[in-house]
Specification:
Layout (H helix, E strand, L loop, with lengths): L1 H19 L14 H13 L6 E5 L3 H10 L12 H15 L13 E5 L4 E5 L5 H12 L7 E5 L17 H29 L8 E5 L3 H6 L1 H5 L3 E4 L16 H7 L1 H9 L12 H7 L1 H9 L3 E6 L1 H12 L15 E6 L6 E6 L53 H4 L9
Parallel strand pairs: 1-2, 4-7, 5-6, 5-7
Antiparallel strand pairs: 2-3, 4-8, 8-9
Helix pairs in contact: 3-4, 5-12, 9-10
């Protein structure tokens, strides 16, 4: 009885969010094991003008079940503080208890997707009712359960003037940066492998590493030393930096003088606002959607070399950041960000690149440097204090937050033009 009351309150929250708060997709995560229960649920949602798409994950492979129980479910708050083996066993017992009442989806009148053994096969029924249903299905078919690590790094500095429309190559400083960054990442991966061997007692091979860049010279040349060592490099035109429009090469002071109304709009909503002939971060996120789908499909470890604006959007996707936090995320050029997948919240770490000036002058074009007032949004922000991987004591750095206050983001490096 209590469970039914809680589920009813959850559905009421869904109706309020979808119909009155501009919500688009809600995930109602309940077991719904019987055909009659699913039909009843679909009718109730329809009365509130809500379309339903049921997702069934059907697993009859004991190996997948055991791995899922150990690697995923023991991270659930339900099993907090429990021994890993005990938690896994309890989860498997819960599954056994559901089997007698479980009815696999075969209701012809319902919209559903059935995944067999974590994506080995898919079955669809009536999933063509709107655009979002197609995108959800496409997203699901790109998912996999293999663990892989993603690294984010800035491109090196350019030589000469590198405008948004231009395409300057790396400077000497940029090439030196590319070499140090390559050496640092490869050394880190080997150290991680050695640690895994010490823990597991077996010779564990390194997972393959794939490198993604945009088509801009700064990013492709930053990947040069990886290519020399035989790593696979893939260029993606969608990963070009955000278009600054009329604000390109203007200082903050000049932008405030020339476009005071636009500055006011930008400060109110830095994610959705776009300057004349420019892109907003929302526009950039839409442009990066195919990249995000490819990212989910990629099974190798992945290094993404890109402009800071692109890294902000991709990092926010992986770390579940609020859209209002995206324009404030900061990626120093003397650091590599490592994102390690986990069931309920990915983990992010900093890897320091030694021998670089953290205040290295970035290559232009940089993002529009309008300060964004207000603190981070809170629970949907990145994990507080990205921790550094284990380093010798003399080289350790204190944990730092990725999100910085607005005044730290203002870097008026271009001479005023007014």
């Amino acid at each position: 009885m209590l469970r039914q009351k809680i589920l009813k309150r959850c559905r009421e929250d869904i109706y309020a969010w979808l119909n009155h708060e501009n919500g688009q997709v809600a995930i109602y995560d309940a077991v719904n094991p019987t055909a009659s229960g699913r039909r009843s649920l679909a009718k109730e949602f329809a009365k509130h003008d809500v379309q339903t798409l049921f997702l069934e994950s059907y697993v009859n492979d004991d190996r997948i079940l055991r791995e899922n129980a150990r690697n995923v479910k023991i991270s659930s708050p339900d099993f907090h503080g429990m021994d890993a083996d005990e938690a896994a066993q309890l989860y498997l017992q819960r599954i056994e208890m559901k089997i007698p009442v479980f009815e696999t989806m075969n209701e012809n009148e319902l919209n559903y997707v059935k995944m067999i053994n974590a994506g080995q096969a898919f079955f669809y029924n009536n999933v063509s009712f709107n655009y979002l249903s197609h995108r959800i299905v496409f997203y699901l078919t790109n998912l996999h359960i293999k663990s892989r690590t993603t690294f984010f790094v800035r491109a090196g500095t350019a030589g000469g003037e590198d405008t948004f429309k231009g395409d300057a190559p790396l400077s000497e400083e940029g090439r030196a940066y590319a070499l140090k960054m390559t050496e640092t990442l490869l050394k880190h991966r080997e150290q991680e492998r050695q640690s895994a061997i010490e823990e597991g007692g077996a010779d564990i091979p390194l997972r393959p590493l794939t490198v993604w860049t945009s088509t801009r010279l700064r990013t492709t040349e930053t990947a040069h030393y990886f290519q020399e060592k035989g790593f696979k490099i893939r260029q993606r035109s969608q990963m070009s930096q955000i278009n600054p429009g009329v604000c390109e090469k203007l200082s903050e002071r000049a932008i405030r003088h020339l476009y005071p109304d636009e500055v006011e709009k930008h400060e109110l909503d830095p994610y959705h606002h776009r300057y004349p002939r420019a892109e907003s971060y929302h526009d950039l996120a839409v442009r990066l959607e195919p990249i995000i789908l490819e990212l989910e499909r990629e099974q190798n470890d992945l290094l993404i070399i890109a402009h800071e604006s692109v890294l902000r959007v991709l990092y926010a996707y992986l770390m579940h950041c609020s859209t209002m936090d995206i324009p404030k995320l900061k990626f120093p050029r003397d650091e590599i960000i490592e994102i390690i997948p986990a069931a309920y919240q990915n983990e992010a770490k900093r890897i320091h690149i030694p021998g670089l000036d953290p205040k290295m002058v970035p290559g232009s074009p940089e993002d529009i440097k309008i300060p964004v007032p207000g603190p981070p949004s809170g629970n949907l922000s990145p994990i507080p204090g990205l921790s550094s991987p284990a380093e010798p004591a003399e080289n350790q750095r204190p944990p730092e937050k990725v999100i910085n206050l607005a005044k730290e983001m203002v870097a008026d490096k271009v001479a005023d033009e007014d």
